[in-house]
Amino acid sequence: MLATMPGMISPRFCETMAEYNAWMNAKMYALCGGLSDTERKADRRAFFGSIHSTLNHILACDLMFLAMFTSGADFDEHSGDLHADFADLRAQREAVDAQLLQWSRTVSPNWLDTASTYVHHEDGIERHVTEGFWVLHMFNHQTHHRGQITTLLTQAGHDIGSTDLHMSVPA
Predict the structure, then answer these.
(1) To pair with 109 at 20 to 30 A between CA atoms, which of 6, 33, 46, 98?
(2) Angle at the Cα of 161 (from 65 to 17), degrees rounded to 5?
(3) Domains, the chain, ranges and CATH?
């Protein structure tokens, strides 16, 4: 059985989530831009250590997903930070958010339902999913790690405000 049933998500879902992703990243980077480099890079005992490294991880995975979706590249996890400089990280984040939004506008129902097989490096078991599964995973991954950053920011006394999906819809 394929993970995600055919027709489970739609092209409009992809576009909505790409819009939400860009909105949340703009909010997060605006708040993080007001922190010192020392604050952003402080080891906060999070999974990726710092806010800066967690932002890098989200970007690295988004780049891998985009390559997989647009050119069929294998998902090859990157280790370490892509950018030590926050301005460079932010600039690439904005560019990738624009690419994700552009990509989301090209997604078709047939592509979402296309079968995809993979073997996870941890257990070697072959799994059968759909491209839609990977789309869900990408958007869930982004939200998961932004939630971690939001927690770290809150613990450091910084309030990002609402992160709710419905708040990203223009008035």
Answers:
(1) 98
(2) 30
(3) 11-159 (1.20.120.450)
